[in-house]
Amino acid sequence: MNERFFLLPAKKQHAMINAGFKVFSRNSYKNSPMSEIAQAAGISKSLLFHYFRNKKELYLFLWDTCARTTIEHLSASGCYEPQGLFESMEKGMRAKMEIIRQYPDMANFAIKAFYEKDPEICAAIQESYHKYFNFKADKARLNMDPAQFVEGLDIGMMYREMYLASEGYLWEMVQKGAVSMEKMEKDFEKLLEFWKSIYLRKE
Fold it and tell me: How far lies 167's CA from each of 20, 31, 114, 154, in Å?
């Protein structure tokens, strides 16, 4: 990647990033032409290639941008600070809603990228995902004080169950087409209330 990309005004960087998220979130990796991304960003195709040598480089940059942006916002939200697990999850959800306001297509891109099967980028995406997921999982475990949960609960199993349920929900939404973030927020709130009702220790 050409480092001069980071010397561009923030507004132009933002336009290129959002254009990439938009095009890649609507098509498979293979069927997302760089010319369409350039058009969405309001620049020429040759200028886009000036900053990114090829489509793979741009795609992986966008994926890394997703991860870095998410972790930065989550950290700033205070969701990794010592507190109840579900309080932490709620703060995290609010942080993600703020990300969506800045990058409307980022969530759709991230979901699409996670399930992308193109051999050119699949392995790199999965390797990066597990690196960032392990970071988030380690942070989340800091909030898992056994005293807040029902007696005898297998906390590791609970965490895995919530993770798999969330992934399954995202996959279902992807299969239906465009992801409604408003619906996702409401559904997630319902999931949180359900998990609280079965996992939290009653006062």
Answer: 23, 25, 10, 20
pLDDT at 4: 86
Two tokens, residue 117: 């099967």
Q: Is 16 exposed, middle or buried (0-12, 13-18, 19+ CB in 10 A)?
A: buried
What number is the average pLDDT over the span 35-57?
96
Sequence spans of domains, the chain: 3-199
Query: 154-195: per-residue pLDDT in tens?
Result: 888 888 888 788 778 877 776 676 667 778 788 888 999 999
pLDDT for residue 137: 53
Question: For position 178, what pLDDT does the model report?
Answer: 60
Q: What are phi and psi of 149, to 5 degrees?
A: -105, 165
What single string gives the DSSP state of each residue in 5-20?
Answer: GGGS-HHHHHHHHHHH
- Strand ranges for the chain from DSSP E: none
Q: Which fold has domain 3-199?
A: Tetracycline Repressor; domain 2 (1.10.357)
Q: Distance between CA 39 and CA 31 in Å, rounded?
A: 15
Q: How far is CA 115 from CA 28, 170, 203, in A?
A: 10, 10, 41
> How far apart, in whole angstroms, are the C-alpha atoms of residue 140 and residue 84?
10
Closest-CA residue to 4 (of 62, 49, 60, 41) = 49
Determine the pLDDT at residue 88: 81
Whole-prediction pTM:
0.73
List, in order, residues 6 or more apart from 151 with CB less than 8 Å away: 201
